[in-house]
Amino acid sequence: MGSLIQSVDWLAIAPPTVTAVVALAVLVADLFLPEARKPLLGWFSVAGLLLAGVSLLPLLDGDRAPRSTFCLTGTSAGRHACSYTADDFTLVIQLLVLGGALLTALLSMSAVRDEELPEGEFWFLLLSSAAGAALLPASRDLATLVVALEVASLPAFALVGLRRGDRRSSEAALKFFLSSVTATAVTLLGVSFVYAATGTLHLTEIAAELGHVDPRLGTLAQTGVALTLVGFAFKTAAAPFHFWVPDTYVGAPLPVAAYLSVIGKAVGFTGLILVAVVAFPAYSGVWGPALAVLAAVTMTAGNVAALRQRPERAHSAVRLLAWSSVGQAGYLLVPIAAAGYADDPAHAIGSTVAYALMYAAVNLGAFAVAALVARTSPRNRITDYRGLYARRPLAALALGFFLLCLAGLPPGVIGLFAKVTVFTAAVDAGLGWLAVVMALNVVIALYYYLQWTAVLFRPAEAAEGAEGAEGAAAGEPAHVRIPVPLAAAIALTAVAGIALSGAPQLVLRFASGALL
């Protein structure tokens, strides 16, 4: 039996801890603040997320060994196993999570008031989910991993259904809840099988034990590995577990949809990387091909569905972003599948991290502009974006840039660079067929991204001719002020995208430093 070291490295656990403490503070403050002062809770949440982000800085020392806490010593094999490790991989994902949550908070400042959402509950749930998402990349045992996953997911169910009396919101929350509960049940069953076969929950010890499992427990171990991976595939919205995505995004408040598209996806992929690459390398010959097929099916399903969206349909802009996010999930799966074939899986994982950083910045930016248009066009159709350049030239240029980044076209250099990086990971792993499927899907995606981009720059007269007076009235007049937090979110994502496009190699170098 190992002895539990009770000392805690508070600096290592600061990012999720600060976020959780601020969430509790917001919940308590909500009890005492009068209604007129409730907007202060939003600013307090933004400050808390900034503080959590700043707490990463003392940990960003590349020459220092990873900081670990909640460790076991004196195991039977003499190994050193920890439940929480703040290594480079952890810090990069925590930066993505906290940065994405901060941008979501800025998006939400005006939306909470406009949609009359309960402010205290909203900010508490958002911060609680962000705390779980920040804990997950540091988790190095299956119990902590599942707990972090549920802390990130459970508040998200409530956020989706927070529009009281809205049937669409309630239906979206129910679909999201049922799919996630199914994923959790499958994951827990897989974890229990893995524990029964190996006798441990720590990822590094599982990796060692799976190499020489008792033959009588071989089937149990294989079933546990398969079920655990299937459970995380649900969380990543990989096909065929993706059908909840469009309805959930449409029914949720727009900032919540933006949060799910980036942070929810990051949570799922981080968990999948940890269990596949760290805990189950002995079964890489099984999960590598399985994830490769999953990647091909996911990107194809997402892009074909996005291609079929009708621009005049209500909420078609959000639906297109939802299906686009499914397609992007397929691209993110490619390097993880390649890690199953590669001699250096850490390099392949670096490609996924680099792509995730690009995707987070530009996708949140696209949702930010969609939130701006939705202020006067609640149906949020793609046709509502006609003439946006004439009304809001900077917003139209920003959205055009974000869409080109997602498509992988200049001037969105970072999008092109990220796709080339993922494509190279597939080729280097000998997955030539997957690289071909990805190339075909990139061509398919070009059509709907460019179609939406072209709509932005059509003259306003075209909108009137196509949609009549309703289409002309859909746009937001230029003299209407944009809320400062929303403008800040658009500006920050645009600056991030431009900066990344100016120095794309830095992204890969930064992400490649996130070695497991």
Summarize the structure.
The protein has 516 residues and is mostly helical.
Mean pLDDT: 85
Major sheet characteristics: 3 strands, antiparallel
Range of strand content: under 5%
The total strand number stands at 3
- With strands numbered from the N-terminus, the spatial order across the biggest sheet is 1-2-3
What general outline do the C-alpha atoms trace? globular
Oligomer designation: single chain
> What's the Cα radius of gyration?
22 Å
Low-confidence stretches: 1-5, 462-478
Q: How many helical stretches? A: 20
Q: Helices and strands: which structural class?
A: mainly alpha
N- to C-terminal distance: 27 Å
Order of helices and strands: EHHEEHHHHHHHHHHHHHHHHHH
Give helix % range. Answer: over 70%
Question: Can you describe what's shown?
Answer:
With 516 residues, this protein is mainly alpha-helical. The chain is 72% helix and 3% strand. A hairpin with a 7-residue loop joins strand 2 (67-73) and strand 3. Helix 1 packs antiparallel against helix 4 (119-135), helix 12 runs parallel beside helix 16 and helix 13 (345-374) packs antiparallel against helix 19 (484-502). The longest helix is centred in the middle third of the chain and has 32 residues, at 167-198.
Summary keywords:
20 helices; three-stranded antiparallel beta sheet; 516 residues; globular; 3 strands; 3% strand; mainly alpha; disordered N terminus
